[in-house]
Fold these 2 entries.
Entry 1:
Amino acid sequence: MTDSAHALQRIHQLRGILKGHNYRYYVLNAPAISDAAYDVLLRELEQLEQENAQPIPVDSPTQTVGFNPNPAFASKTHALPMLSLANAFSDAEITDFMRRNQQGLLENETITYIAEPKVDGLAINMYYAFGQLVYAATRGDGVIGEDVTDNIRSVSGIPWSLAADGVDIPEHIEIRGEVYMPKASFAALNKRQQAADLKPFANPRNAAAGSLRQLDASVTAGRGLAFFAYATGLAGDVFAQSQHQMLAQLAALGFATQETGLLQSEDAILQYYQTWQAKRPSLDYEIDGMVFKVDDFQQQQQLGAVARSPRWAMAYKFPAEEVETVVEAITWQVGRTGVLTPVANMLPVLVAGVMVSRATLHNIQELARKDVRIGDRVVIRRAGDVIPEVVRTLSLQAAHRAPATPVPKLCPVCASAVAQAEGEAALRCLGGLACSAQLTERVKHFVSRDAFDIEGFGAKLAEKLVEKGQIKRLSDVFKLDFAIINTWEGMGEKKIANLKQHIQDKRKISLARFIYALGIRHVGQTTARQLAQHFGDLAALQQANVEELLGIHDVGEEVSQSLLDFFTQAYNQDELVALLALGIEVLPDDTPEPSGNHPLVGKTVVLTGSFARMKRSAAKTQLQQLGVKVASAVSQSTDVLIAGEKAGSKRKKALDLGIDIVDEAQLLLWLQSDVA
Ligand code: IVH
């Protein structure tokens, strides 16, 4: 190694070590060295940085005073994209997977599979330079994630610096794995949440994600998160030839890894899956399936990847966990469009790590088919491991059972008539916005993220505003009487001022969002976007007739009828007039539609320098067609700088601002894949 290479290595090492000490001192309040010893290291780094005329990053310990965390959740581009896994739900799909792999390789080539439990947490990518942790980022969209470096330091199973006898560590390497919350940490956290009158987390995965995305790193440190490594990104191929070797190396470097198995036959694989399914409840963390990967890296490479997942790996998901309990009552919930959903209220039970006491019975047909009655023993599960549902009833001794729950004739909330449209499964309350349940749901939808997106306007507030009569129609959202709200408990000056500001901020809205916000039946985001593009302004949409509506891609009878119904109702017409009179400005959509799920959609990029393979203007047009914003100058709001040859001042500015910079090769990759 040359002197300057040595210096560079030491610089990286010192930065890593000092950042670790800063974290111990300022976040954990538990310094590991004396102030004097710290100063010696800091001075050494200062001197090396002075002597080596490379730009000093803003987050170097020499540039920060005390503990100066990275900007909260700044975006980070992964050096290599983070792929996802294809899912299998049956043995047959595993058979297919194995056959495809064999076909993709030589006929008589032996394939060894490695089996790993699929941890239910969130994927993280960590970048180490010269053995020191430089940053950690969430998976994000697979290409760009969020910087969570400070928070990752308290997660167990992650070394801050890498060193091990016999392991040749590449100068730059990405290590990947799952951050998860052990069952014990999860139970303790939810106990604390409840004691503090806060909402409990729905499951350990959500709790892990929420805990990692904390602005205050000491909050994360108190949550007991843990980590398992299962992959490498950049440079992973350098220090192992197979997945099992790589895991052994990672374990030697101090990363936590899981127990795995090496298997060849289909029988062995399916058997292994069964064994772990049986073990699942007794593990101290949640797993939701098994991952089977071709072990050999060369074979992996030959098999390659499709759109978003490698061909050589497959997640075989476990069926949802089923649990028994007793039904105590059957109630009806009224949704946004007035649909009445029967709900079983049950003795609380733990299902896949979460206390469940309510489960949907979907609609009256389902209620009749499953014949669920009060007092019945039922089997429940969490569909997709999220929404609880009743699978079946158990005790069917007719004589001892309660009578079937009658179908309501009146809305349980507003006592309006209830009707069932022909050919529809759903019962519907005819009260419209006069029904407080419907109004509340409409308000929640109106202010939600994909609609008006009013920050700080959550479900609780919507419920209270309707309950207290502050909101009687949607336009009242922009007419709130803050003096009155101010007198409510928990609504102090600061909260009111923020809410006022957030509502004020959203008086301008794109046509697509506006149409979606109205909550017209059958009009979701995609239809709203298509309508906005076709009509260009609200008046044109309001005046459209059936033929014109049916002429739009994807708009069928149902949707067009629903639109006509909506716009011909005097009540809705008045509401639109009222909203416009309140100063709501509906803007035509100027950004072209994203063509699919591209990782850059919605991001702002800047192009600079000259490109060898395509003209800059062509790159710009193609990016815009994907729904990417292409800006001309680098600023704080730039997400990525795409730099060609001879990039000058823009590149320097991006470096100063810590903005991700990628080259033409990455640009070409992005333009080829319109799916993440
Ligand atoms: S490998 C190239 N291995 O599952 C494949 N993923 O559904 C990259 N996960 O994003 C992933 N346990 O968050 C892999 N042993 C394991 C895993 C695992 C959990 C998660 C990970 C990934 C998701 C894909």
Entry 2:
Amino acid sequence: MTYKELLYLGEKVLGEADIAEAKNDAWLLLEMLCKIDRNFYYLHMEEAADPVQIREYQQLLKKRAERIPLQYIVGETEFMGLRFRVNSNVLIPRQDTETLVEEALKYAAPGMKVLDLCTGSGCVIISLLHYAPYMQGYGADISKQALLLAKENASLNGVPVHLIAGDLFSRVDGFYDMIVSNPPYIKSADIAGLMPEVRQFEPWEALDGGEDGLAFYRRIIAECPAYLRKGGRLMLEIGCEQGQDVRELLVQADFHEIKILQDLAHNDRVVSAVK
Ligand code: GLN
């Protein structure tokens, strides 16, 4: 079987499994497995692929056809132009979350201490420190497995992040100039209706925001005054319908300069406020 036939097989298998980006995914799996790029492919596509690789490719296709997210199969993804390792212990970094990072970068200043709650893969705090290396970064997560991956991602990207194992602020001490978070925010009852890739393979703890989806915002907003310095900024990623609810929680907790920001698709995505 040639590389060309292999790629065609990939497209067909994934297309039949109703994978939206069948062609793209088939290519990315082939690229990863055979360690080839487009150039190599076009020069050698009529040549026979290695029989071991053919068998391995079929196994990768089978996994993807079972709806395992491509990023978990490949083991990495891109976020803010950086590479992050991912596995089923962490949420796959989303492009939407770049809105949070870009907004936080507008306030970055030398010496600032920044805390990222629910750090997961570490994508938020690590990219903040990559683009603003003069800040000090802390990332907290309840999942020890997630923190292992965040640690790996910090060294992969060459940034020093202090990682804290604990539920939100439970193991945090001191005051921060900025607190950022992309907490779980899906309503519990809505999880069953998500894409199979998400509901079957992404960690439930990283998705479930409780009955109304706002459980983490309530806790973060209630607890953060003890950790955010006066005049410091809290920035939260939100679901596109949660802007007004989160704004109201912030108003009640006496935050000011409350802003709701949109992502590239013009959906409400980030709420930012000053203590
Ligand atoms: N902070 C991580 C991210 O943005 C994880 C978020 C989460 O697990 N809810 O990808």
